[in-house]
Amino acid sequence: MAWYRRPEIRIIIVALTTILVITDFFIAVKTYNDFIKQLLVWSVIISGFTIVLGAVNIGVVHGKHIIKKTPGQWYFSLWLIICVIVTFILAAGSEGIPAMKSAYDYLINNIHTPLTSAAYGLIGFYFASCIFRAFRGRNSYVAVFLLSGCLTLLLNAPVTELVPFIPAVGNWVVAVPNVAGTRGIVIGAAVGIIAAGLRNILGLERGGLLAEE
Amino acid sequence: MKRKMIVPGRQFALIFLLVSFAIVYYTIRKAQKGRVPKIRPFPAIEAIPEAVGRCAEMGRPIFAAPGMGEIETAWAAETISGLNVVHYTARHAAKAGVDVISIVVRTPHIPLTQDAIRTAYLIEGTPERYRDDMVRFVPYGMAYDVTIMGVAERERPAASVIVGTYWHPALYTIEAMNAVGAMNIGGTSRTVMTPFFIGGCDYFLMGEEVLAAGAYVSPDPVPKGSFEGQDIIKIVAGILIIIGAIAVTFGSRIIENILRW
User: Which residue, of B125, B129, B135, B158, has the fewest CB within 10 Å?
Assistant: First the structure.
């Protein structure tokens, strides 16, 4: 195996960068902090190159449908590829060519934005459908969810002015158990990140895949 | 005045971090030497073979996705868990001769998810069934929302396994899959999305269970050992919280001052 393809090289790079970025949070040395800031800018630039992966994936997946003329799919794939190419050309040209800039602005303001709003409008119906399904009350988790949801809804309803205890109970549910549970989950996630960081530094973060190879 | 090398107010955090590293390292080494901690089974994970069996009987694919969180941010641990669950699902799918469909919204997830699914088919002895287009990239946002509805209607998966970090598009996934009669298995630690997973999924994981499930399904002892270390750190954090709450109740700010050191 060529030396540059050895897994140890990848592990050293990952470990070094993880340690450098973690220690930046604790060390108050301006030169070091500036260096890490620059390193993070480089990482953002490098991660931008992964967009190429996305473009290749779209081309491969939908190109296959177009070539094979997959029934019920190939014309959607063709339209998608055309839209991607046109949008890319307009976006790339919009920086220097005024006509392309106005065409790109038209595309975004009059086509993309209304379509996005329409798609997001669907979420209201899906929201209601999900809550309606939840009212079947399959188990104790759903029952607790329903009860706390009802109390929270009632908090915002005018009827709470007639029944004094509802705002008190609802506000308590939101301010105490809800916040406590959320903070507990945040602590758990934070500890998970600490452990993941150590596994990265030690080169043990393989997702269990390479362990079987 | 002599400048301090360590940022003021973060010295205790540095010590806590180093101690946490030491604890996790110890439990990982313990697991690697054979003393692997037991993680309780999760109904949602136990239901995955049932979901795959349903897909095999109906001759339909299974949808499995690792979540939407970036792997280079705070969502890394949950995304890795999601990838482990995708790999576990793909292994059962490979055994049963079921195709896997996966949609990812972050470009770094493409090779990771492809690797998870391809390795699963390789391990189960059916590498010829794997195709790169099982993993499809769709940008996060409206594109994903409408794509998942289209995939559900056209390809009609009989089950979906969505464990990882999810934002509102998970609602589209759950409802689109429910509309075509798919069995939903889901999980996220994001509290704002948990109610929708509880309401829309047949089996769900919430909070810490998502991270534990990733360790549970992984054949590697390292995630399990790491999870034991995380539990110890959480117990220490819990003890600090309880002592701090009692101290503040009696008017003492000692724990607060230690944490701010």
Answer: B125
Task: Provide the pLDDT for residue B48.
Answer: 96
Question: Burial, A8: exposed, middle or buried (Cβ in 10 Å; 0-12, 13-18, 19+)?
Answer: exposed
Q: Which of B202, B215, B110 is nearest to B162 (CA)?
A: B202
Considering only the beta carbons, identify the residue of A57, A130, A188 that sits closest to B196.
A130
Q: For residue A203, what is the nearest residue in chain B, using CA coordinates? A: B222
- Start-to-end CA span in chain B (Å): 19
Domains in chain B: ranges and CATH: 43-217 (3.40.50)
CA–CA distances in Å: residue A64 to residues A67, B131, B194: 5, 11, 37
pLDDT at B64: 96
Q: Do A28 and B6 touch (CB under 8 A)?
A: yes
- CA atoms of B188 and A189, how far apart (whole Å): 11
Secondary element (H or E) of residue A136? none
Q: Tell me the CA distances in angstroms from B198 to A135, B117, B149, B187, one per residue in order.
A: 11, 27, 20, 9
Q: What is the pLDDT of residue A201?
A: 86
- A47 to chain B: nearest residue by CA? B108
ipTM summary value: 0.81
Helix (H) or strand (E) holding A203: none
Contact call for residues B169 and B145 (beta carbons, < 8 A): yes
| Rounded-to-integer distance, Cα A126 and Cα A36, Å | 44
**Rounded to whole angstroms, what are the CA distances from B211 to A145, B39, B62, B222?**
22, 11, 22, 13
Residue A108 DSSP class: I
- Greatest CA separation found in chain B? 75
B238, pLDDT greater than 80: yes
Return all residues near B193 (Cβ < 8 A) that are at least 6 apart. Answer: B166, B167, B168, B170, B171
> B226 contacts in A (CB within 8 Å)?
195, 198-199
Strands B135-137 and B159-163, bridge-based pairing: unpaired
Burial degree of A3 (CB within 10 A; 0-12, 13-18, 19+): exposed
